[in-house]
Amino acid sequence: MEHSPGRLATTLIAISIMVVGCTSSPPDSPPSPQPTVNAAGAGADGAGDPYYPQDGNGGYDVTDYHVSISYDPAVGDLDGDTTVTANATSDLSKFNLDLIGFDISNVDVNDKPAQFSREGEHELSITPPEPLAKGTSFKARIRYKGKPALREDGQLGKNGWQKSRSGGAFVAGEPHSATFWFPANDHPRDKATFRLTARVPDGWSVVSNGREEPSTSADGWTTFRWVEETRLATYLTTIGIDKWIYERSTLPDGTPVVTAYAPGVENKKQLEARLPEILEFLGSKFGPYPQKVAGGIYLNEDIGFSLETQGRPIYARWTNLETVVHENAHQWFGDSVSVDSWADICLNECFASYSQWLWTEAKERQNLDQRYRTAIDRVKGRDTFWGNKLYGMGKGNEFHGVYDKGVLAMHALRRQIGEDAFNRVLKEWPAAHKDANASWKQFEDFVQNIAGQDLRGFYDAWFHGDKIPADQYLYPGSLRG
């Protein structure tokens, strides 16, 4: 994710270091402890994230979402029919999904009617007609209708289902966006494949994640189909309904590219034309592109952020070249390797922000050591800048330091461990955790092992601390002097 320049104008004036951004455990490491079931075989109503304890749910693992909707922009009502395919990880007499708003007409589990109730802000509690045995696969089908919700988030601005100036609609938000339009196990730990079937009146069109399949028309409506075969976190799903201008191509390796431009932003075509160059550069740093598709969704909206929706980032009207670099770096850091808990957000944003520095170093021959020293000189006495922890920042503070302090921390880490070790980290970390989840603690251990150094002091100073680091950590390696 990358913030709009205006949203972080104060920070930019203070440090002038960047166009400031936004964004299942691997087999060799245990997952974070999380609740699975409550009493009497009821799945837990949260995944166990301390920042958002009721996000997600326990007792099952989703393998696929098939979301079918009908939406008429002139009316604003959404008719939804979503099938969630999952594996029971415990014996379940009851389980929950997350869904905000809507009137629910029917819930079926394995093609049989199920009882359901709404609890709290977003819990949909489902009692299957027969208990679900641990290890079995099941399908939950939910049919629902209503006007999708929109919420104001203190960090990012508007999240959820938003209407566009053309009269269409789009979805974007972090950490929450999916449950504004379909029921889900809404936490990054439970990644799943995603299919969308979207029916809109003729003249409107739909863009989403994944591979584009043929559309069909009947009775004044057109149905669009998109299939994302790479597992994704729920907040990385999206839908855009507009009168899109599409561009279709392929990357040199044959990866299909679909980019959609809303009316009024056709000038962004020049920017998106550099996508093959951007992905080639990022691949040289991070390893092979980890997604099966590429492209972008260019909105004619001044929302407060752009977002790394998987395989096809969604861009605000203010997007520039570094934004496109940032959001595509997330295809490795955040999308392929997803956070285990929201406290781990530096794994997404610190890397994506530093990708902008790597880009200017390579393409503009910028001296990053000098850029770093200049930035440090500007923020040395600013306690509010250093007070933003990069790990353990607390709920509601996830995006407060990762774009500015985070990028400085990544450059300091590079100089602390040396060029060879840092380049290994950039490639080996996303390869080791591809299509999985990882925690900040795992990252610290991973880097320390590659570097062959005791980095605990460095980590405490830069990532766990809320004060300016001591000079030995502030000016490591070539930054000394």
TrEMBL record:
Domain (Aminopeptidase N-like N-terminal): residue spans on this chain: 65-236
Enzyme type, top EC level: hydrolase
SUPFAM superfamilies assigned to the protein according to its UniProt record, in alphabetical order: Leukotriene A4 hydrolase N-terminal domain, Metalloproteases ('zincins'), catalytic domain
InterPro entries in the cross-refs: Aminopeptidase_N-like_N, Aminopeptidase_N-like_N_sf, Peptidase_M1, Peptidase_M1_aminopeptidases, Peptidase_M1_dom, Peptidase_M4/M1_CTD_sf
Domain spans labelled Peptidase M1 membrane alanine aminopeptidase: 319-462
Gene Ontology process terms (BP): proteolysis
Cofactor: Zn(2+)
Protein name: Aminopeptidase N
PROSITE patterns for the chain: PROKAR_LIPOPROTEIN (PS51257)
Highest taxon of the lineage: Bacteria
Similarity-based family: Belongs to the peptidase M1 family.
Catalysis performed (reactions): Release of an N-terminal amino acid, Xaa-|-Yaa- from a peptide, amide or arylamide. Xaa is preferably Ala, but may be most amino acids including Pro (slow action). When a terminal hydrophobic residue is followed by a prolyl residue, the two may be released as an intact Xaa-Pro dipeptide
PANTHER family registered for this protein in UniProt: AMINOPEPTIDASE N, PROTEASE M1 ZINC METALLOPROTEASE
Gene Ontology molecular function: alanyl aminopeptidase activity; metallopeptidase activity; zinc ion binding
Enzyme Commission number(s) from the entry: 3.4.11.2
Signal peptide limits: none
Source organism of this protein record: Kibdelosporangium aridum
Keywords for this protein: Hydrolase, Metal-binding, Metalloprotease, Protease, Zinc
Region of interest (Disordered), ranges: 23-59
